[in-house]
Amino acid sequence: MSGEFRRYLFPHDHPRVAEVRGMDPYAYRDFAATPGSFTGGLVEGWTPLYRNDFRGVTENGTIRRGLYPLTPPEPGEEAPVAQMVAAAEDLLAALDDDARERVRFVVDAVEWQTWANPEFMQFDTGLRLDGQPQDVRDKALALVRASLSPEGYELAHAMMLINGFLGEVVDLPTVLNEFSYNIALYGRPDLHAPWGWQLFGHHCAVNCLVVEGRMLLSPVFLGSEPDEIDAGPRAGLRDVFADRIALGLRLMAALDDSQRQAAVVYEQMVDPAMPEGRVHPGDERHLAGAFQDNRVIPFEGVRVAELSAEAQSAALQIAASFVRLLPDGPRAARMREIEAHLDETWFSWIGGSEPGDVFYYRLQSPVLVAELDHHCGVFLDYDTPQTFHIHTVMRTPHGNDYGRSWVRQWQERNDPG
User: Fold this and answer.
1) Which of 58, 202, 226, 285 qualifies as a cystine partner to 5, CB 3.0-4.6 A?
2) Which helix (DSSP H) or strand (DSSP E) does residue 151 occupy?
3) Are residues 273 and 212 part of one domain?
4) pLDDT in tens, 116-144
5) Looking at the 3D structure of the chain, how many domains does it have?
6) How far apart are CA 274 and CA 372, in angstroms?
7) Strand runs (DSSP E) across 150-239, as ranges?
8) Residue 315 DSSP SS3
9) Which residue range is the domain that position 381 belongs to?
C-alpha cells in the first residue's frame, strides 16, 4: 500500500534525526565516526579494510585465473566508449583546476575501494556533488547516462531521487539529498586504454570500467528506503525492485520440498541458528557489500543446474535484472559469461517465501554474486526488516571487481617491463 512507510516516521524532535539536523556532510561525517554513535561501529570496522591488497571475492579463498580473458568484444557487443569519453571530457572541462585534480586517480588506485552505501561520507573520494554547481552535477549525471542502458540509468537515478525524497520527509536535506553523492574518475578517458568512473553515496554506488571496447559494472550497490515517492513532483515512482522481488519468489515457488529445504539456509531473518556476526549492524545479511573486496563467501543452498527448467529460467532472469544497468552489447556479453557457469551457480535464501514476506537471497557463481536483502530502519523507526527497505549488491568474483583483472592484463600487454 502506497505510503506505508509513513507509519514509521520518527517524531520531528526525536534525537535520531534532530541531533544531526542542519549538519553539512563534513560535520555529519565527523559525527558519524564518533564512538558510541549510531554509525561509529561501522566506521571503525570498515575503515581499515580498503587498504588491504585487492584480490577479489572468492567462494573458497583461492583465486581462479583465466575467468576473464581480455579479448575484443563480439560485433555488436561494444561498450559506448566514444560517448563516454565525450561526456567525461565535458565534465572535466567544467571543473576548475583544483576540482579537476581532486576528481582524478590512476586507473588501479586503491581509492576505487573506498566506495560505501551509507548516508555518511566515510571517504571524501573525488568530488561531492551537493557541493558543486548545477552545471557540474548535470555533467556528472550525463556521464552516468552515457555509460548505462536507459533502464539502468533510470534505476540508478531513482535511488538518488528517493534519497532526496527521504531527506525531505525526515527534514534532513543536508544529509540526504538528490546529490549527496561522490563522483571520481580513474585513468584518462580513452577509446582503448582502461579508464572508468565511480559514483557512490546513500543507497547508490556504481563502479564502471571500460577497456578495449569491453565494459564492466562492478561492484554495484542499489537500495531504497522507502521504495517509493508518494508525494511531490515525482510522486508515482514506486516498487523499484519489484522484478528482483518477484523473480526470487518465483524461483522459490518452482522448487520442490526437498530443494526448498536445501535452499533455505536460515528460516528467520535473525535466526538463533546463525553464527555470531552473520547479521552485520550495517550490511545485515549481505556478505558482499562495501569494503568486502576480498571476502570468502562459500556457496550455499541449491545448485541451479539441478533445478527445474522454470527455476533455472528464474535464476537467469535474476542475473539479468542485476546486470541490466549495462548497455545492450556489454549486457549480452555479461549474460553469456554468467550462463557459461550455470553448472557452478548456487542459490540460497533466508526468511519467508510467500508474497509480502521479508527475505534475503543470493545467486552466486565463480563470475557473479547477486544479493537482495530486506533491512531494518535507518531514518525510519522500525527494528525488524520491512518490505519497503531493500538493499541489493552485485560483485564480480575472482578478481574482476573494478575491472581489475582486465586492467592487469592490459598493463601486462602494453607495459611488460
Assistant:
1) 226
2) helix 150-169
3) no
4) 999 988 899 999 999 999 999 999 999 99
5) 2
6) 18
7) 181-186, 195-201, 204-211, 214-224
8) helix
9) 242-399
CA dihedral 329, 330, 332, 334 (to 10 degrees): 170
Lookup result for grid cell 556479453: 333
Residues 143 and 99 in one domain: yes
> Do 321 and 340 fall within a single domain?
yes
What residue ranges of the chain have pLDDT lower than 50? none
Do 15 and 135 fall within a single domain? yes
Q: Is the pTM of this model over 0.85?
A: yes
The x, y and z cell numbers of residue 268, run together, are: 528467520
CA distances from 109 to 59, 106, 125, 196 (A): 25, 5, 11, 11
Distance of alpha carbon 395 from alpha carbon 322, whole angstroms: 10
Does residue 59 fall inside a structural domain? no
Q: Which residues contact 242 (CB under 8 A, 6 or more apart)?
A: none
Q: Does residue 121 sit within a domain?
A: yes
What are the b/e assignments for 125-153, b being 16+ CB within 10 Å? Answer: bbbbbbbbeeebbebbbbbbbbbbbeebb
Instruction: Please check whether residues 224 and 297 belong to one and the same domain.
Output: no
Mark whether 211 and 315 lie in a shared domain: no
Distant-in-sequence, close-in-space partners of 292: CB < 8 Å, separation ≥ 6: 49, 57, 283
Distances (CA, A) of 5 to 96, 169, 378: 42, 11, 12
